[in-house]
Amino acid sequence: MSQMRKDIFTDRWVIVEEGEGLQPTDFHFKKFARNTDFCPFCESNEAATPPEVFAIRNRGSSPNGPGWSVRVVPNSRPRLRIEGQLERRAEALHDLMNGVGAHEIIVETSRHDRSLHELEIEEISDVIRAYIARIVDLEGDQRVRYVLIFKNHGEGAGAHTISHSISQLVALPVTPRAVKSKLMIARDYFALKERCIILRRAPTRVEGTKATDHRECRFCRVCSVCVTLSL
Questions:
Q1: Which residues on adjacent β-strands are paired with residue 148?
Q2: What gap in Å lies between CA 40 and CA 71, rounded to an integer?
Q3: pLDDT tens digits for range 105-132
């Protein structure tokens, strides 16, 4: 199992993977090209992944079989695992805990020849529904403090080994320092001013002749204008 260790100089938690560290050869990347060989994330190859934890499926299709549009599976090489207890402890100057949490793969489409930006609006909507469903489910685990969803794209992000369109989810037993700082600032502002800093800063944007007040934006957490404010 991996460990989470606190860097005493930056006050940040770091995931330390078990096993051997990186070698110099690990940083030599091949030019990205969509791989047409066997892919464990393609439809009909469900047996090549761990059992799914969530899927958006056609009516009548069976779990872990064909007939899905979005599928979520545990990462086969997880940085954090759902099993076990945190067992937070101290060793000399350092605080550490077991690498307990979750690390999942969101397969955004059953088609190998499509990227996220090439999907139809309804298909992208299904991907976001999968995000929400997994966040809501993991919120019920008292060990989880924060859920991060991210997507690597291109060689520089380390996505050169997987050509199928996927996102990743990591459920952490701690709140990242940057997020915690924003929350504390918002709390202190509210205590001083008795009003919400996020709503105060939310801009009003003009679309054509219609003004959109983003203080009432139902999609503020994903809106390109408001996304930096929702943290």
A1: 170
A2: 12
A3: 999 999 998 989 999 999 999 999 999 9
Site of tokens 């700082």: 181
pLDDT digits 0-9 by tens, 187-208: 898 889 888 877 766 555 545 5
pTM of the entire structure? 0.76
In angstroms, the CA 41 to CA 149 distance is 18
Helical H runs in 70-169? 121-139
Write phi, then psi, for 147 (nearest 5 degrees). -120, 125
Looking at residues 219-223, what average pLDDT do you find? 47
Lookup: tokens for 37: 């060989």
Q: Indicate the SS3 state at residue 221.
A: coil
Distance separating alpha carbons of residues 102 and 75, to the nearest angstrom: 9
CA distance 33 to 178: 35
CB atoms within 10 A of CB 140: 7
Rounded Cα–Cα distance for residues 14 and 82 (Å): 17
Tokens 């709390």 sit at which residue? 187
